[in-house]
Myosin-IIIb-like (Sinocyclocheilus rhinocerous), 777 residues
Amino acid sequence: MEEKLPEDLANLSELDEKSLLEVLTGRFTQNLIYTYIGDILVAINPFKYLSIYEKEVSQYKCHEKKSLPPHICAVADRAYQSMLGRLATGPKNQCIVISGESGAGKTESTKLLLRHIMELCKANSQLEQQILQVNPLLEAFGNAQTVMNDNSSRFGKYIQLRFQNSSVKGAKINEYLLEKSRVVHQDEGEQNFHIFYFMLAGISTEDKEIYGLLDPTRYRYLNGRFGKEDMVQAWRLKYAEVWNAMDMVGFEEQEKVDMMTILAGILSLGNIAFETTDSDALKVSEASRGWLKATAGQFGVQEEDLLKSLTCTTSVTRGEAIQRLHNQQQAEDARDSIAKVAYGRVFGWIVSKVNELLAPKVDCDVELNEIGILDIFGFENFAVNRFEQLCINLANEQLQYFFNHHIFLMEQKEYKEEGITWETITYKDNKPILDLFLTKPIGILSLLDEQSAFPQATDRNFVDKLNSKFKTAPNFEVVRNHTPLFTIVHYAGKVQYNASGFLEKNRDTIPANIRELFINSVTPLLSVLFAATISRTGTLMPRRAKLQVADDNFNSTRKQSVGAQFKRSLAVLMEKMFAAGPHFVRCIKPNRSKQPDQLDSKLVMDQLRYNGLMETIRIRRDGFSWRPKFREFAERFVCSLSCGIQVCLILDCVSCCVDYRSRICRRRYLALLAEIRRQRQAQREREEREEEEERRRQQLEEERRRRLELEQENRRPASPPVPLPRKKKPEPRPRSVLSTVLKAAHLAPVPRPRSKLFEVCYPVKYYTCIYEITFST
Ligand SMILES: Nc1ncnc2c1ncn2[C@@H]1O[C@H](COP(=O)(O)OP(=O)(O)OP(=O)(O)O)[C@@H](O)[C@H]1O
């Protein structure tokens, strides 16, 4: 019989790495890939089909956490119910953060979450189908085969699902940092973006001719390699799926044709090679003359203009156009940067089209709640780490900070507020690393921007600046080398960065002559893409092209650097996430060879360690890891009392710490009652005093009136009048009994609309639950 292993690591009796691994390995062997740490889900990638996503997932609907085995659908259910306000009160918007290294299963988890949320809101309308079906399109253009993962997302995404009450009304996709450099270069064992292979495999012979496509092995940007027949067959099916998705998203025929033509143009462009002549001039090699002609045709521009934009740069200084001839390296860089920009813009445009389609069609005054799902690249540490890795690792630092904030800071703050004796848990606070990156004016990104603004500055200058500013910083290490290297000690380990190309990638400018060339292209989509502006967060904003000349605003407005755009987009993302109720899924990769039923203990332990999961287990184990639903909790522990004011107070009695908690609870409750009684007694006494004084005043008034009458009758001069006692100013009343009581009990009132029967509900934050006290008078 199979051993019953704990479903929640917070319940482990022994907390050491050995027992932790034993439980995870044991569960993995039994195909139990999901395990809880309190309310956090750990998911180990099975690398094989499991039948746990079939009919039984329908049980994960308003389910009690303890009644069903841990599952990704439980996270979807919890987020959905919280968004509807059916669980403990808190922010209505929810966010699910999925993290893990490449190939750990983030994207699969995202798809499962989306699918289950659609299931929960009984989605079968067109919109819900569209939300699920845009995935193949995004994956085709944004994913690629890497050594870590055959279907690796080469961009980060935050999907915001928007709901009106329980039904989904729209969605928005925010994309982050598409790895554009993959278009022109892939490391050994890796491929270009899927779409190139899908297109070459799936396109008909007739269309191949129309788009000017040749044998796939002839393209340098594909490393001259293509797939075996079974692979090609799978790509063919994928191509049909992408084409369907484009129809469904609402791409016009012309747009689809243009898109394919641009992709074909990118492939041809990659084959243009340059050589120097005897006179040191640069020219396109004889062998690639045909490729130049093909590219110009596919991009809808003149061949000579394309050649000029590759071999020289034109800049305008004081009204005078100055031409600078490129050397061979510069011409190759210009070629590659056109390919990267064109591809990046096609991708940005697809995302904007998808967002247009999925935008909520409701009045703007309708309040929509949101569930956001963040699927973003994991921490990266390669043999050579470049600008892209720096940005990716910065994003991961930011996410780790968000995780720490919720799991350690907020949790321990709450215990402190509740007066629970608590041994502080130390954890790796990565705020200093974030400061190292983001502080103005001397954070790494600010210094990079500063150097990028100097045309003469080099990557070496940038690293020298870093060395001089941060040589004593604890998370920075100077590397003495002729290549511009530096090391950052990240939360997940040391990463050495090679700064070659940092300034150019950060500037990411398109020379004005290239932009002008493409704006004037006869391929309408290309023209729109190059006329588009880029928002401060790096989002492409397509607009109608000006067909004659590039508009000068582009050059005059200060373009944001890639680093600044990324920093801003992270800040916007964090703002949204900090305002939402968080849910965490930590994906773990069991082995590097992507094999089922194999678990490499060291690899798993490393991931647990750098994700901070050991500390998380401790805090969840020693703390209050179980946060029951309000209804579930109320059914078990409700008690009702009444005494003049009806007080319905629901007390917390979770099995652990029961005595301690109930004593504290009772003490507070008695103090609350005593305060109510004291206030009422004081009020009664005050009213009695006021009544007595009023009676005395009326008596004196009566006496005085009678004396005056008597004096008038006797026609004698009146004696001096008896002064009337002054009407006393009423004693200041307390604001109200309730407000004083609530103040004494440290509670905050929540205003509710007044009704005939005055009723106010007060949320009482107590340990890990939110309760309601209802006072009715
Ligand atoms: N729950 C699962 N069941 C079966 N297979 C899975 C599951 N999760 C992941 N896989 C397998 O692992 C592969 C990698 O997963 P996925 O693409 O989700 O990783 P990732 O963390 O998103 O990686 P990257 O950061 O590179 O995009 C999938 O293509 C799939 O084959």
